[in-house]
Design a protein that fits this description.
alpha/beta, six-stranded parallel sheet, 309 residues, three-stranded mixed sheet, 14 helices, N-(1-d-carboxylethyl)-l-norvaline Dehydrogenase, domain 2, elongated, Rossmann fold, homodimer
Chain lengths: 309, 309
């Protein structure tokens, strides 16, 4: 089977590489913090000392890291993928970096004689573990075709969105809609609590109808319980929406709700919730209500108002 | 079977009364515009010249009209339900009027020797026709119990939210979350269009994951197609959110996204979309983008940018 390199053993990359191994692909892994390669090595992966070394024997190179500078470094940097890759091979980046960075890295790849597909994912660590990710791909149809067997080992819904960058743009749409939707849920629960309603009954009555959503089903109970561990991290959601704003400002798009949501996420980051899941947005709502002592919420994330929302 | 009066033969009340008839309940109907009683009479309903007359032979009286003054008139007015109802009988109002009006009408009923349950619904005309409504009920448990066989003929999910007014408060939560969610969808589609993405592919990639919602599945394709007929009317959604704001202001709740959504809905009302479905929110997004000629959108609702979103 196609020999694969996988760069980035984070909360997403590690289980994704694990699923490639389970599907029978020979995989060479690399991570900046080398210890993180060990669980994959235990599953049968080879290890490489640099992205360049990992790429040297691979037919397809996958990268999945945190932000634009990380992707630039692991692909275009002095020890990056393009320093080791064989001519004509395919690089598939699964990080969320926005369309502009994707197009720039695609140019970088083309100049080095490699091909590039952007294929950011949605579904979180759980989707990565269960191989149920949504994968939004941008690039040449033939390149995506080549990557498809490997992508199918990692995700369930794989959509070819268009040329390079459109996978990233589609992922940004996903982040806009998702973030505005979990705020919709938090705003409703804030009203529910203030009106003295039973939160669980509110979710039961509202969640199954036209106001229902994945966020309502999955995050509303955790908002009620002030269960802020796990889930998609506030700091990453904020990063993604800042990528959105950079694009929106260039395109002249107001995106009024998204801009408001960024303010709430920034408050969360400034008040100790950056590493919490996005369900902690309810803490920002409790704070802006101004009826909860702000210090309590600021100093003890997850402790404030834990009895009910 | 329990003899029922049903006041209000609108887009919701008529099919709801029809389902009571289908379930075998004897039903007497009344509507201010009397012709609207005719289709129900054809299904076997008796007709009454006033709410008072309809209520006079009924064990349970249902009301389903548009707004607070309408409910006050049909229940407490000079020809209203309470002028005809027998002592100790039950009035169930299924309109959306907010918790304060519900409590005030409950007092009015109690003083007239009748009992009151607020039971607003979610699910729209289609849910009313298919008897799949969500019904959010507030009142005494024994009163709800008495109404339950009839409610089961009209809805699927029936939640007892608490004392009188809590059904209304829960419905307002539903309206907050629903409206903010369809704006989340519209905001994402606006970005998608500006980024030059294929809208149908965006919906495919985004709708099945963590950003998915009833609104994404049901309204996003209609937003793309500029199909603004049918669905829940902008004017009613705006009315419901104004009920939300009246409560929120008293409770000191900012509800920042809801306030923003009301501005968008007000723009829609001012620009000929009041009788369109809430999917026409996409027209407000196109207008605030400022790259579409406003006059085109204002004068020809549904005609602007019809090629794609």
């Amino acid at each position: 089977m196609t020999s694969i390199a996988f760069i980035g053993m984070g909360a997403m990359g590690a289980p994704m590489a694990g699923n490639l191994l389970k599907a029978g692909f020979p995989v060479t892994v690399h991570n900046r913090t080398r210890e993180r390669e060990e669980p994959l090595a235990a599953l049968g992966a080879a290890r490489a000392a640099s992205p360049a070394e990992a790429a040297s024997q691979a037919v397809i190179v996958f990268t999945c890291v945190s932000d634009v500078p990380d992707v630039e470094e692991v692909i275009c940097g002095p020890r990056g993928v393009l320093q080791g890759i064989q001519p004509g091979r395919l690089v598939v980046d699964m990080s969320t970096i926005g369309p502009k960075a994707a197009r720039s890295i695609a140019t970088c790849c083309r100049e080095a004689g490699a091909r590039f597909v952007d294929a950011p994912v949605s579904g979180g660590p759980l989707g990565a573990q269960q191989a149920t990710l949504s994968i939004m791909a941008g690039g040449e149809a033939a390149d995506l075709e080549e990557a498809l067997p490997a992508l199918r080992a990692m995700g369930k819904t794989i959509v070819h969105c268009g040329p390079v960058g459109t996978g990233q743009a589609t992922k940004l749409v996903n982040q806009i809609v998702g973030a505005c939707t979990f705020c919709a849920v938090a705003e409703g629960l804030t009203f529910s609590r203030a009106a003295g309603l039973d939160g669980a009954k509110t979710i039961e009555a509202v969640g199954g109808g036209a106001a229902g959503s994945w966020m309502m089903t999955n995050l509303a109970p955790r908002m009620l319980a002030h269960d802020f561990e796990g889930g998609f991290k506030v700091s990453l959601q904020a990063k993604d929406l800042r990528l959105v704003l950079a694009e929106a400002d260039e395109m002249g798009l107001p995106l009024p709700i998204t801009r408001l949501v960024i303010q709430l996420l920034t408050w969360l980051e400034d008040n100790g919730h950056g590493q919490h899941g996005t369900q902690s947005i309810i803490a920002a709502y409790e704070a802006i209500r101004g009826k909860e002592p702000q210090s309590k919420i600021g100093l003890e994330p997850g402790g404030a108002g834990g009895e009910a929302v």
